[in-house]
Amino acid sequence: VLRLTSFPDGHTAEDQPEGTNVAKYFDRGWCATENAWASLTKSGDLSLDLALMRDGVEYDCRSLIVDCTQDGGRRPPLLPSAFAAE
Hints:
- The chain has 86 residues and is mainly α.
- 31% of the residues lie in helices and 5% in strands.
């Protein structure tokens, strides 16, 4: 699963064309749903957040996985109370 949870360096919400959904990743309905499903079905090293890529770094498969799975690479399932709050 490839996720882009924030704008890449040098890009901002203000730079996007009018009408673009610039809501934060986890505030978007479909992104939050897809992330939850992937967290339940995919290994942590198969859920990559491409927003964690570093500018100026050349990546091979292993280094991409290492950098893009920082902080576990995926969120754990939410408790029912936290799910209800979202």
